[in-house]
Amino acid sequence: MSLDVEVKDGVDQETVDAVKELSGTYKYGWNTDIEMEYAPKGVNTDIVKLISEKNEEPEWMTEWRLQAFERWEKMTEPEWAMVSYPKIDFQDQYYYARPKSMVEKPKSLDEVDPKLLATYEKLGIPLKEQALLAGVEAPEEERKVAVDAVFDSVSVGTTFKDELAKAGVIFCSISEAIREHPELVKKYLGSVVPVSDNYYATLNSAVFSDGSFVYVPPGVRCPMELSTYFRINAENTGQFERTLIIADKGSYVSYLEGCTAPQRDTAQLHAAVVEIVIEEDAEVKYSTVQNWYPGDEDGKGGIYNFVTKRADCRGDRAKVMWTQVETGSAVTWKYPSCILRGNDTQGEFYSIAIANNMQQADTGTKMVHLGKNTKSRIVSKGISAGKAQNTYRGLVSMHPKAKNSRNYTQCDSLLIGDKCGAHTVPYIEVKNNSSRVEHEATTSKVDDEQLFYCRQRGMDEEEAVALVVNGFCKEVLQALPMEFAMEAQALVAISLEGSVG
Amino acid sequence: MLEIKNLHVKLEDEDKQILKGVDLSLEAGKVHAIMGPNGSGKSTLSYVLSGKDGYEVTEGSAHLQGEDVLDMEPEERAAAGLFLAFQYPVEIPGVGNMTFLRTAVNAQRKARGEEELSAGDFLKVVREKAKTLKIDAEMLKRPVNVGFSGGEKKRNEILQMAMLEPKMCILDETDSGLDVDAMKLVSEGVNALRDAGRTFLVITHYQRLLDHIKPDVVHIMANGRIVKTGGPELALEVEQNGYADILAEEVA
């Protein structure tokens, strides 16, 4: 084990070793050789207390969670999104699972679906992250990416901590931050996404198990990309991670988030909360490549992805850019939002949402313009194939004080085949006279002429579709950091395999 | 090179016969031209040979170097060396011309079990070939055919042909929409590719293209059949007298 990986409290060395071990066999599906320790199924105050206790949290944190739980019990699940799924039994989930000391239970390869194996093989990229996690130093010329890996409910290890510490950047798991940096957590946690924000965020506030924490001090440009790699592994387990990013005055950080899960017949719940605080003149880029298991062709299994992500441009001239590539999950309910509170703040949202087979995606953004001269830009590319339904839902709100503000929205949908659907639901509220909102939307089909043209030049049908679709997504792919752009392009191709013909 | 025998083709969705027994024998190293009035089936022939959907072969055969092309997927035909320069090249937004070319070249190499070209080698070759067609770096970066003028689109088709080095090149009305200068450029590009191992089938309405790309054999197509075959002089005859005489001859 290299010194770059810090072993956390509550995770024993064997766990880290096991993950390291698995990194070598990842492409064969790590589904999984780790024996888990579970809290009993269901959620109640005892479970909330137990999670808090497992994370060795101070009392104020336990209280915070309990208050959230009390609220959640009085709330009802929202039904306005254009998604349908069997009612979730929240008492039939595990809310806490962590790898126990390992007893290796080797599974034979033929138990793993070859399709899944092929997918991982083609993906490649998470392996790089795991190499880092396992402490393998990247060659000099490669850009370094610091990784925090969350495996089910616990953060396993964070790379490059020492190097980041030299720059004054704090990058650790949220549970560690609660213990080590309580003043920062107390000040910012729940300040962007309040405990009572929405059903899933409130549940998350009560039961979040771990997640990542970033603090970039004033004037610091974070010396490397930060990345969190989320993995839901245990069966019937919900993952509720919490991410808190604080960019202090004049700082800059680029943050990447990757998500995968093994194939399961039963649907699994994922309800994360991401809060970003951006002070004066600071800038945050947040990129996600979400590749949770989408369920099979008939819609069996898959991840239910109910995520609340919000950035608060608190100080003047603060900037945030969300970029997301959503290819996985059976159900996606996700609207990364920008609160443009300071004057001259800017919010950007670039999104590719791909839904194939029986997947349902209801995703978009909210741009809430509160300050003067605020600007926002939305570029959304929705791709539907198979029998999938893809909805863009976006709110642009110009408040009375947001004078001279601008929004530009571009919403393009691409259909592959004739059994899928694309929907665009823009909400626009303008409460002053000097602001301007533009909205453009297009819907097109992958054109047979284009496919024939590509095939006449020698590409097979899937390669042709991938090329055309990647062209369609280009503006968004360009917004991604290089490390992710390649992965995203490959994902676009993989997600659409079998969608034509 | 390409042997077409008694080819009968109808539209898939309609009961409409378009090709009614086409026989063509195209030898290696030769340039064959097909001329004919609108609706005679010239473009259909090029689509059927390259494998476009929407057509049904009801009778006959087409063999490329002994292989049954009608039995192959379009990309297999391409890898086997069949190339169609489109009359209306298709736009692909967001996909750089260079990316497209490289994907195509490597897809064919892969299909033939050859090694893929490295980015560096590819770039060298493409720049050289683009230069002779007066295609600048800017045009190579732009999305495939998007916002290209008629002449640029056709030059781009010839660039693709030059990069893919096919054995059997079908040019479907490559002269349409070209001014004199562009026609010259395109023809020079085609002539530079003439080779003992390469065959061209040039489909055109007008003799003027054949002033630049000199054919060895000229066929006249009408009503789904080849009605007359001759030397380059046949094209001149058509230019002067139109198709009426030849068609009348045929009926008689």
TrEMBL record, chain A:
A GO biological process held by the record: iron-sulfur cluster assembly
Domain of life: Bacteria
First and last residue of the signal peptide: none
Every SUF system FeS cluster assembly SufBD core domain range: 230-472
Domain SUF system FeS cluster assembly SufBD N-terminal intervals: 164-221
PANTHER family: FES CLUSTER ASSEMBLY PROTEIN SUF, UPF0051 PROTEIN ABCI8, CHLOROPLASTIC-RELATED
Record-stated family: Belongs to the iron-sulfur cluster assembly SufBD family.
Protein name per its UniProtKB record: FeS cluster assembly protein SufB
Gene: sufB
TrEMBL record, chain B:
Molecular function GO terms recorded: ATP binding; ATP hydrolysis activity
Any one Pfam family match given in the protein's UniProt record, by short name: ABC_tran
Alphabetic keyword roster: ATP-binding, Nucleotide-binding
Alphabetized CDD domains for the sequence: ABC_FeS_Assembly
All copies of domain ABC transporter, residue ranges: 2-248
Top-level taxon: Bacteria
InterPro entries: AAA+_ATPase, ABC_transporter-like_ATP-bd, ABC_transporter-like_CS, FeS-cluster_ATPase_SufC, P-loop_NTPase
UniProt similarity note: Belongs to the ABC transporter superfamily. Ycf16 family.
Xref: NCBIfam families: sufC
Protein name: Putative ATP-dependent transporter SufC
Gene designation per UniProt: sufC
